[in-house]
Amino acid sequence: MRYTSLIYPILTISLASTAYARNKQQHPINSPLLTPAMPPPSSSTSTPGGDSTVILSDVLGNDRSINIFAGFTRDFAPISKRFEDSSLNTTILAPINSAIMGLPRKPWEDLEDYDKLGAEAYEGGDGQDRAQRNLRRFVEAHVVPASPWKEGEKLKTLAGGEIWWESRDGGKVIQPGNIEVSSIASKVHNGEVWILKGVRNYASQ
């Protein structure tokens, strides 16, 4: 199928690339121009609400280990605009590339779609729209509309699922799902970027 055959070869090439350029234009998810881009690195950080002018959209693409997820976010204007809005604090839970690549199905695939529509569920215009909706749900399941985010504080992601985090062995674990936070990659004016070792159960959102 188109999505299966094109997206991951493109992303694999992207991971091997040594130079990245920001792509400000929106593209469909099966476009070769989707290849996640990296803006010039920025070393400026601050706590949310500080005086720094650096925002989430400036830093999300800086870490190559999450550039697949960063590329997905740029497919959806409302999400991109949120990251560009200095008045909206956000915690981005970005899965590492290997976690996305290792999924049993692609982020835009839903078993219910296959059950109802068969192997051609994502072909044609309706199929592409369906895949785009599913991919947006995947991205929104990894975006928490708050920062700072206190331990144990239960919040809803943009997809609507309730989520919280706990301290464990000196690190953070996202619940539900026991997903380890590898690191906090960035702390900027309007939020933080957390790198996850796994992927949230987006299908249940």
UniProtKB/TrEMBL annotation:
**Signal sequence: where?**
1-21
Instruction: Give the InterPro entries listed for this entry.
Output: FAS1_dom_sf, FAS1_domain, Mug57-like
Q: Which UniProt keywords apply?
A: Signal
Residue ranges of region Disordered?
A: 30-51
Annotated organism of origin = Lachnellula occidentalis
UniProt cross-references to Gene3D superfamilies, sorted A to Z: FAS1 domain
Listed name of the protein:
FAS1 domain-containing protein
Q: Where is the FAS1 domain?
A: 53-200
